[in-house]
Amino acid sequence: MRDAYDRIAAGDVGRIAALSDGVFAVAVTLLVLDIHAPECADIHGETQLASALFALAPRGLTWLLSVMTLGIFWVGQHTQLQQLERSDRDFAWASYLFLVAISALPFSTRVLADFFDFRLALGLYWANILLCGATIYLTWGLAVGKKLTRADVSAETDRAIRRRIQIAQALYFAGMLLGLVQTTLGVGFIIAVQLNFAIAPFRAWRLSRRSGARGETGGD
Amino acid sequence: MRDAYDRIAAGDVGRIAALSDGVFAVAVTLLVLDIHAPECADIHGETQLASALFALAPRGLTWLLSVMTLGIFWVGQHTQLQQLERSDRDFAWASYLFLVAISALPFSTRVLADFFDFRLALGLYWANILLCGATIYLTWGLAVGKKLTRADVSAETDRAIRRRIQIAQALYFAGMLLGLVQTTLGVGFIIAVQLNFAIAPFRAWRLSRRSGARGETGGD
Amino acid sequence: MRDAYDRIAAGDVGRIAALSDGVFAVAVTLLVLDIHAPECADIHGETQLASALFALAPRGLTWLLSVMTLGIFWVGQHTQLQQLERSDRDFAWASYLFLVAISALPFSTRVLADFFDFRLALGLYWANILLCGATIYLTWGLAVGKKLTRADVSAETDRAIRRRIQIAQALYFAGMLLGLVQTTLGVGFIIAVQLNFAIAPFRAWRLSRRSGARGETGGD
Amino acid sequence: MRDAYDRIAAGDVGRIAALSDGVFAVAVTLLVLDIHAPECADIHGETQLASALFALAPRGLTWLLSVMTLGIFWVGQHTQLQQLERSDRDFAWASYLFLVAISALPFSTRVLADFFDFRLALGLYWANILLCGATIYLTWGLAVGKKLTRADVSAETDRAIRRRIQIAQALYFAGMLLGLVQTTLGVGFIIAVQLNFAIAPFRAWRLSRRSGARGETGGD
Predict the structure, then answer these.
(1) Which terminus of chain C is more solvent-facing, meaning fewer CB atoms within 10 Å of its CB: N or C?
(2) C-beta of residue B77 within 8 angstroms of C-beta of residue B20
(3) What is the pTM of this model?
(4) Which residues of A touch C22 (CB under 8 A)?
(5) Rounded to the nearest 5°, which phi and psi values hold at A188?
(6) Residue of chain B nearest A110, judged by CA positions
(7) Per-residue pLDDT for chain C (220 aa), expressed as one digit of tens each?
(8) Do residue B219 and residue A90 have CB atoms under 8 angstroms apart?
(9) Model ipTM value
């Protein structure tokens, strides 16, 4: 059975991209729902509201962590899929498993936010990110191994994509180890690294303004 | 009235694909929301958190079951839509009914998770899967019967697509019968079968590594 | 300001289609979330679960009503957008207002389900459907009036699209009037009419099987 | 590392558009979930339901505010992306940050609805809109500075896009200042300005009907 079906199954890269954008869009929007607005009944003045909002800061921190993580994986997968000529059943399944790992992030984010000082919560969160990394590494391995990539994809591109996942996972692992010493330290370290990604566009923008309309920025 | 409108209605396969990816993306992401994080107030140490997370295992099992089911139907429908040249009003409605059945899965998953030992809960869950299978079988029947498929779609492809739905439904039915004896047995059986699908990419990946850059794997 | 910006604004029909598919996908999936699974604590046997599930029937009815309504509007808008050559700012805004009306359906569905015997709840629900109808009628009026449609769209197509909205709204209005006498009667009437749409594919499928591989069915 | 990866990363404008449509679709649909239907237990007659629905009016106002704001940003970003020839990693990240700001709107809307008379709530809401404006201004700056736009994008288009963001932000700022005097005044002012956008299609429609089938309306 498998052979007949396999020859025709799940060959449309666009469908994988569309499902991915859907999962990322829902995950990003759900993350913010977990920052519960303060309860009306408890608050009677501006100062009380200010401190109630301030009390949301730790939850805001885990939100920022997960939002940045989603961004990094979205850019990464976006880049991978662009290199593809076609898909097949295995690649579609591997991509689906990656998206399932991504869809679990709101859950492990909530556990981390609720149990911020617990090593187990940090471990669970890290395990989720590791699963995302492992499955996206698998999809790329499949794409190359099964010759699904476009003909003009160079060995250098292959290496760059693999290295990027390895480096990102090394950083998350380092953050997790730091977090075993103190959670805030580990989470802070990961966010600091991630903010580099977030700040890059602003830097590029300043550079592009300085170099005038030529747009000769290094980051392109 | 029907004839004038029918000639122009709902002919864009891309819209059906986009709606499907949206429904699957939301359904996958919502499933995880039903695994409620443990309550902060009850937990004061790592061990307590560990057992609270461990207590989520049955719910994790139904989540895995539904996530795998969604993946199987997504790959299946993805494959079907690829064979289409165009859509029409009947095909669009049949696809919509399939998606409605898919969108009901988070509900029947929750009932199964909450009432794991109840035959009625398993029966409801199976009825939902049967409805998904029946509607996707219908959409394919319509596509072939109404000549919506691409000219190069062979009789072999037609048979492979039908057989795949029949076999999958036979397995779900077997799982349900086993579940009448003992729910865990039935659910476990279905998950075991489904994991075959999930593990396939990993196996393909190992094979593709072994065969080097040639990518001569049997599963393509 | 308006002129310079208007010449370039919001011309991509594909973006409108993608936003629409997103809104419909989320709305369909959210509707089912409002059918709350029975509470575990209250149920100790199969019979109790059966009656608890049976008690969800009215809510299942409003769910069916809204799901069918969403399907009708989705097929309708799908058909409209297919006739378009390009979009402009006004058309994008009108489409957005239509989608806002669609996104409100889960709210008015919930009010109808919670207050099934209240005329006000039925009136609110009907007002929502009227708003969906009015805005989709507006988008088509704009498309034709501003020459956004493809050159090959005939006057007959124009009439068929308008007539379909008018007939659908007439039926919803009739259902609402019946509902003022008795809600179940009105809701039942609307669902019965809508099920015609749902059953059409099944009928087409049986016809296509009977006429063999030729697929000469009248409904295409 | 950065250079090798940067040359290939995140170049697909369609992925950014698809993620955007997903985030906007989920955000629009979630906003309505925050208008909680009245509680069944408290209501025993039509009059009670009427006053319970009427009591939702302030929440309806903030819903309208956010729905219109989402529409304005969606049309704006839609217009921007249409001018693009390609994307790159910085542009993808800047777009992602814009979408994160958009995804936070349901949260700040809820805070504003719950604490309507609090300056802090209005300030938070305004800060969110400012963040949306700043990030979308950044994405356009990047697109122009890094030459990602299509060759036929004129300096006039560039100015029109920038001016539109500046004017919109000026209006939101004015609304916020008015709101410091009295919240309803500020929110009312912003909605009044936004309704101009919403009413434009209706005006265009009436014009297009008056000018007959020629469709010679000024707004195209």
Answers:
(1) N
(2) yes
(3) 0.91
(4) 22, 25
(5) -60, -40
(6) B37
(7) 445 677 677 678 889 999 999 999 999 999 998 888 888 888 888 899 999 998 888 888 889 999 999 999 999 999 999 999 888 888 999 999 999 999 999 999 999 988 888 889 999 999 999 999 999 999 999 999 888 999 888 898 999 999 989 988 998 999 999 988 888 888 888 888 888 767 777 777 777 776 654 434 333 3
(8) yes
(9) 0.89
